[in-house]
Amino acid sequence: EAGVAQSPRYKIIEKRQSVAFWCNPISGHATLYWYQQILGQGPKLLIQFQNNGVVDDSQLPKDRFSAERLKGVDSTLKIQPAKLEDSAVYLCASSFGPGGEKLFFGSGTQLSVL
Amino acid sequence: DQQVKQNSPSLSVQEGRISILNCDYTNSMFDYFLWYKKYPAEGPTFLISISSIKDKNEDGRFTVFLNKSAKHLSLHIVPSQPGDSAVYFCAASAGGNKLVFGAGTILRVKS
After folding, report:
1. pLDDT digits over A61-99, tens only?
2. Which residue of A has its CA nearest to B8?
3. CA–CA separation, B26 and B30 (whole Å)
């Protein structure tokens, strides 16, 4: 069974630039999550999709972050414009059920904002 | 507001001995707890979980203990192996809602 696919693996940008991350969840998983993991901290949920609808985006900085999950499969997370404090690993995860359960994570995208 | 706390940033254990990783939580509504393991440059992988209706769950070398009155859980690894060296995250959820993660504990198993 293929796991959660993410790209790119690494990205270096300057502040005020924009960046986008892509995620393809495990086939058949209805729920998709984007987490932000800052060095030395645990993953923090940014947004949760159930199929192509948003379930929770309470911690997403909506003035600069956006995410979509068209057709209930792939998802993209965008940051525009980026700030220095956005430097982190962005993890995508998926689960079969609606949430609060065992998640399957991708390898993440390491973002450095200079 | 840190609802899930892992107060030990790191732990070093000799191969073959027991590793005990601790986790405390503040939200009494949490009813499901999980441990994830993370190697460098990889995403976290699920290790073991426990529901609040239990106080112990075992899977091979891994056992999780839950003390609801103390709002504390622990992960025991016996015997510890060098391949267990990783970052371990404790996570919790309430009523099927989002997982809240602790900051992680780096485990180093020395051979």
Report:
1. 999 999 999 888 999 999 999 999 999 999 999 998 876
2. A40
3. 9
The overall longest dimension of chain B from CA atoms, in Å, is 41
b (16+ CB within 10 A) / e for B73-89:
bbbbbeebeeebbbbbb
Name every chain A residue with its beta carbon within 8 A of the beta carbon of B40.
Answer: none
- Asked if A42 has any chain B CB less than 8 Å from its own CB, the reply is yes
- Reported as type and span, the H/E element at residue A74 is none
What's the CA gap between B76 and A78, in Å, rounded?
39
Task: Give the sign of the dihedral formed by CA B47, CA B61, CA A41, CA A13.
Answer: negative
Average pLDDT in the B16-29 region?
97
Contact assignment for A98 to B96 by CB distance below 8 Å: yes
- Residue among B95, B98, B102 whose CB faces A48 most closely: B98
User: How close, in Å, is residue B91 to chain A by CA atoms?
Assistant: 9
